[in-house]
Amino acid sequence: MEFGWSDTELAFRARLRRFIDERLPAEWALLIPGEHVATDFTMSFSAALADAGLFASHWPHEYGGNDASPWQFIVSGEELWAAGEPRGSQYMNVNWIGPAIFTSGTDEQKDLHLKRIAGGDVTWCQGFSETGAGTDLAALSTTAERDGDSYVINGQKVWTSYAQDAEYCFVLARTDPQSSGTAGISIFLVPTSTPGFRREVIPSVLEIHEYNRLTFADVRVPESCRLGAENEGWAVIRSALAHERIGGPRYARAALVTERIAAQAEAEGWWGQDGFGMRLAAARSACAAARILVYQAIDARVKGRPEDLVVSLARVAIVRCERAVAELAADLGGEESLVAGSVGHGQLKTAMIAGLGGGSVEVQLNQIARIRLGSGR
Q1: In this structure, which topology does domain 125-231 adopt according to CATH?
Q2: Is CATH 1.10.540.10 the classification given to domain 7-122?
Q3: Where are the domain boundaries for CATH 2.40.110.10 in the chain?
Q4: Cα torsion at 157, 159, 164, 165 (round to 10°)?
Q5: pTM
Q6: Fewer CB within 10 A of the terminal residue: the chain, N end or C end?
Q7: Residue 108 half-sphere exposure, CB side, CA atoms within 13 Å?
Q8: How far apart are CA 116 and CA 119, in angstroms?
Q9: What is the pLDDT of residues 230-268, one digit of tens each?
């Protein structure tokens, strides 16, 4: 299949690229995506994108979008990720939190949240991973016990990005104590100012990115904070995760880094090293393969076909291309690749994040095996 672009999509890419060139300081070309997640600049940049109609163009018009096709979703991701992701943490809001709310939320929830998300002026985090469960969301132990017209949430979430600045947390909790696996799970949209909610920074070697531990100690939220039907949250989260796993098209940034390595090779004579040409070609091919697999996932979404398998395949390919470029930079740069600010150092850090963010790549490999072997999803 040939993935060509329509005139509308080409015009959107050109307009977005001009906006980025005009608004983004030159230093962003050297930043690692995720290095700035909720600064004054990222907030103002997101708001300016929204004012220009470039922030949530693929959303329905009634919720602040332009009724554009999902192809604009990935065009936007490619251009902004390649530029260092100047939306900060808000890429997550527009990629899947907002769509989850306008797909499954009440009118009250839509009125409360969607205008702010589409306007680029609110920060969210996701309460998914847990100690002992990792990225196996079906093994979560956080509970939400109904008490009249409220729920009382207890438990802990770990490795949570963006929590330090978040106003809201998209939380998964078990509402049926007799259930197991994917059954009996509900979703809650929890204000982080709620009494009993606590966040702590988790030390990490990735100084460019801050992780947090979230503690829910008798956090009481009204029933109006539940997204979707009680005990039926898994269907909502499956759709949301499909958007999340390909919503950060890291291959776009990795491809740029690959070409920086090629330019450095010309300057420093690396072409004479054994196997350099083959390794460079392998890195370029890995980036191209990830891009095509993501396009296949978007094509499936546009045509209403099942996308679970191709999304997982694309996610694995994205991680592998990041790692291939990181290994190339490290092998050629040697000790220089450990120096902060070098191409190798930055790519190594972002490749480490890629293998965990949005669910570990090993979980995706298990998902692929289950689908291909016919043992369920």
Answers
A1: Butyryl-CoA Dehydrogenase, subunit A; domain 2 (2.40.110)
A2: yes
A3: 125-231
A4: -90
A5: 0.88
A6: N
A7: 8
A8: 5
A9: 999 998 988 777 777 777 899 999 999 999 888 888 887
